[in-house]
Amino acid sequence: MTDGVAVSVVVHVLAERAGVEQDKRKLSRKFGVHGIPRLVLLDGETGRVITRDGFDRLQEDNRGSAFPWRRKPLADVIKGTLLKPVEGSETPEQVEAASVLESNKIVGFYFSAQWVS
Fold first, then answer.
1. 3-state secondary structure 64-109
2. Does this model's pTM top 0.70?
3. What highest taxon heads this organism's lineage (predicted)?
């Protein structure tokens, strides 16, 4: 773990010294960096973002036991029963989360506020 972090720090320091401010801005936009410190971890083979919150993950897991802090599969996060709308009914159906997640390529969660008057 420390090798990856050290490399990131070295790259940042070299970029500062070389004066490549334009490249830093491009990278900041690409990875959604709006504040510092920020540690973005990429998969070295695919170039995909593993996490944009590496610094926070490092603070939470300073021994790196869960490194590289990949996102958990949705089936590991959403468990138990969900409420599924039933066409023509105001009463939703209770279904197991696993069955919904396995049978659909796209799953959406709608969050809203309900104001009580």
1. CCCCCCCCCCHHHHCCCEEEECCCCCCCCEEEEHHHHHHHCCCCCC
2. no
3. Eukaryota
